Amino acid sequence: MQLIFDSLTGNVRRLAGRVAQRLEAPPALDVRHAEPDGDFLLLTYTFHRGEVPDTTLAFLARHGHRLRGVVASGSYHWGTHFARAADVIAARYSVPVVAKVNKGGTDTDVAQITGWVQTHRTELL
Ligand SMILES: Cc1cc2nc3c(=O)[nH]c(=O)nc-3n(C[C@H](O)[C@H](O)[C@H](O)COP(=O)(O)O)c2cc1C
Fold it and tell me: For residues 121 and 25, what is the distance between their CA atoms, to the nearest angstrom?
């Protein structure tokens, strides 16, 4: 399973990097360049009151059939809209919300996401 991320200010890029490192996997790929050839876990962020970034939507329009789970970052500051991008994507593509994280996530978040990938991957990373 590949790791694919979308990030504007770096929080999700750093989170994805930490997960890849912990998995001893190849680097996570940016949605702007990624052309996945198998299943992937998407890590993205939440924008404009609970919405999915356009860059993520464009990527999923082409590759959503290979999406297996979603992680969304957000900020607690946004209250009920916190990390809502995960819920929107999970509902649209019928995949699980693997995690919702504040900003770049905690060590516990990294461990949980890593564990999910280890449990669900069917291909060598
Ligand atoms: C204009 C703007 C709107 C945002 N809207 C939300 C939101 O609705 N819900 C949320 O949880 N976080 C929201 N955030 C916070 C980001 O999702 C959060 O900072 C995230 O970690 C950014 O990831 P990145 O650094 O990888 O781009 C918003 C941030 C900005 C700048």
Answer: 12
